Amino acid sequence: MDDKGIGLGTTDAHPQAAQTCATCGRPLTQVGPKGECLRCLVGLGFLADGEEPERPAARSRLTPGPLRYAHFEVEVGADGFPVELGAGAMAVTYRARDTVLNSEAALKVIERRVAQNLGARSRFLREARAAANIHHPNIARVTYYGEQDGECFYAMELVKGETLEARVRRDGPMPLALALEVIEQAARALAAAEACGVVHRDIKPSNIMLESDASGAPTVTLIDYGVAKVMGPQAEPGIEQTQAGFIGTPAFASPEQFAGVQQLPIDTRSDIYSLGVTLWYLLTGRTPFVGRTMEEIRARQTSELPLEQLRVLHLPAQVIALVKSMLAPDPKDRPQTARELLSVVHSCYERFNPKARSQRRRGILASAAAILAIAAIALGTWLYQRARPFTPMERSIAVLPFENLSSDKENAYFAEGIQDEILTRLSKIADLKVISRTSTQHYKSTPENLPEIAKQLGVAHILEGSVQKSADAVRVNVQLIKAATDSHLWSDTFDRKLTDIFSVESEVSKAIADQLRAKLTGQEAEIIAAKPTNNPQAYDAYLRGLAYTLKTAFTPANS
After folding, report:
1. Which fold has domain 396-553?
2. Is 400:462 a contact under the CB 8 Å cutoff?
3. What residue ranges of the chain are covered by domains with CATH 3.30.200.20?
4. Which residues have a Cβ under 8 Å from the Cβ of 514 and sit 6 or more positions away?
5. Residue 182 contacts by C-beta under 8 Å, 6 or more apart in sequence?
6. What backbone torsions phi and psi does residue 516 show, to the nearest 5 degrees?
7. How far is it, in rounded angstroms, from Cα 248 to Cα 375?
8. DSSP-assigned letters across all residues of 219-249
9. E strand intervals along 393-552
10. Do 394 and 460 touch, CB atoms closer than 8 A?
11. Residues forming CATH 3.40.50.10070 domain(s) in the chain
12. Cα 310 from chain centroid?
């Protein structure tokens, strides 16, 4: 073991020499403040004052013979012991069989010491219900919850393949393109959970499964949503953590998860941080912050990232910037939503995917080797398709309301103003069909069915965006989506000073015109690049007035 110690949870692709916990006898790969394993530490968190922990002989679950929970029967290995798929701080996951449906399942059994706490039991039930309602191909569903003999358990679909942890331990760090594809699929899962108001809280390589579909393409599945946190009105304050103050895996946990009694908000940005640590692990085979105790890890999270671990891999600057943003200590400096993260990850993947580049190179070589006449015809057809102008329908766009991601909700006027300014600039381009604000204003900033909205509005493309204003800085994230396929044509994030907001509006308008192959006259180019004023205070006042005017214009009395 090196002088830096190990993180609490998976930290390195190379296994360390294991010691054992004096309390439970399990391998000591997770260490609490006093040398306990993390499972025992969590158990201590649920003890009443003065209560002594059970000794190993009394609490051991590793006994031979079958285990049965409701209609789920735990599978037994050749050695006669239950087959464990994994063990964490609060639970053991077994391979099991649903005897009613005669199908395989993953059965997670919550530690008895944790389950006997009424608040914890109530939380597990509530959050298992929430997790069961998430329907997404990149998420393993929770299908059953039960209580038996003082224990809580729930069943999940059994996902084939291997965990990311197992993959990295076996093969070492992942190639960049594969790592980005994995993170992109995981981000899609986070977006689905976010839409249901659920935070995972324990994103890590051992909770992400990787398998290949029939074509050999990688498929990612997030597991273990049964101990997730419910956001919003369903959440109940005061029972989010153990008395020890922590839920999650420290090596992959966000700084706010260490907050304990401070009860800092835990939302999707926490999962984004954990996914950032996971990306770091996939690329390097280790986690960025390691330590023998949770306190050491927490302290190192506020220090500088060890970026030299990434730079020696010669990673593109855009990828390093992505990792840095995901691992920002302050949640306000991370991508604010899973959809925002997805946009940035997708952009990196499309740009740095060597498979796509090699496919293009193979296509060129194959064309060169073909009969000259056939190659000429094929090339001519390809050039024609590339040069073919978009039809009026294809050059149509609707700009949906931008989402206000500022901590101050009063800044909604600013997001509305940026949307309106971009829409206005686009409407000055004669070669584009731009739907009026009147037609788009009643749609949400993050709609669920973009193809249907596009059909209703009669457009081929949708522009979504978000704005985060803080002091004298602003972040604008935009995504241009082809509605027919619900796919991203272009996306970008702009971090600027408020005094430079006009350049963002101009750049977005110009980029959209380029993507839709709209012809710009010299006058139109000047119009979309023009600054309405050089006075930021005057512009802010204008946006406030515009928001008020638009708000009153769309009241029922004036519609």
Report:
1. Rossmann fold (3.40.50)
2. yes
3. 38-157
4. none
5. 164, 174, 208, 210, 218, 220, 282
6. -95, 5
7. 58
8. EEEE--GGG-EE-GGG--TT-SS-TT---S-
9. 396-399, 403-404, 433-434, 461-470, 473-482, 487-497
10. yes
11. 396-553
12. 21
| Partners of residue 209 on adjacent β-strands | 163, 221
Residue 128's pLDDT is 78
- DSSP collapsed to 3 states, 107-162: EEEECHHHHCCHHHHHHHHHHHHHHHCCCCCCECCEEEEEEECCEEEEEEECCCCE
202 noted as active-site residue: yes
CATH architecture assigned to 38-157: 2-Layer Sandwich (3.30)
Domain with CATH 1.10.510.10 in the chain: 162-229+246-351
Per-residue pLDDT of the chain (559 residues; tens, 9 = 90+): 343 333 444 445 544 434 555 555 454 444 455 555 555 554 444 444 444 444 443 334 445 556 899 999 999 988 888 898 877 667 788 999 999 999 999 998 887 877 788 877 787 787 778 778 888 889 988 889 998 888 889 898 888 889 999 999 999 999 999 999 999 999 999 998 888 888 888 899 989 999 987 777 899 999 877 555 555 444 443 333 433 445 667 889 888 888 754 567 788 999 999 999 999 999 999 999 887 777 788 888 888 899 989 999 999 989 999 999 999 998 999 999 999 999 999 988 888 876 644 554 454 445 445 445 555 555 554 454 444 444 547 789 999 999 888 877 888 888 888 998 999 999 999 989 999 887 887 776 556 678 888 888 889 999 988 898 877 788 888 889 888 887 778 888 887 888 888 888 988 999 899 888 888 888 888 888 888 787 878 888 888 887 777 666 544 444 3
Phi, psi of 212, deg, nearest 5: -115, 140
Cα–Cα dist 297/170, whole Å: 26
Nearest partner of 249 among 18, 34, 71, 32, judged by Cα: 32
- The CATH number of 162-229+246-351, from 3.40.50.2300, 1.20.120.680, 1.10.510.10, 3.30.420.130, is 1.10.510.10
Nearest to 339 by CA among 444, 240, 419: 444
Which pair of structure tokens corresponds to residue 82?
């239950």
Pairing mode of beta strands 403-404, 229-230: unpaired
Rounded-to-5 percentages of helix, strand, coil across the chain: 45, 20, 40
Rounded Cα gap, residues 460 and 393, in angstroms: 6
Element (H, E) at 166: helix 164-171
Q: How far apart are CA 6 and CA 302, in angstroms?
A: 18
Range list of β-strands (E), 430-546: 433-434, 461-470, 473-482, 487-497
Catalytic-labelled residue, pool 12, 98, 202, 267: 202
Site of tokens 């690049």: 529
Tokens of 373: 């006449």
Rounded CA-CA distance 508/493 in Å is 10
Q: State the residue for tokens 């039809």.
A: 391
Residue 188: its pLDDT value, please?
93
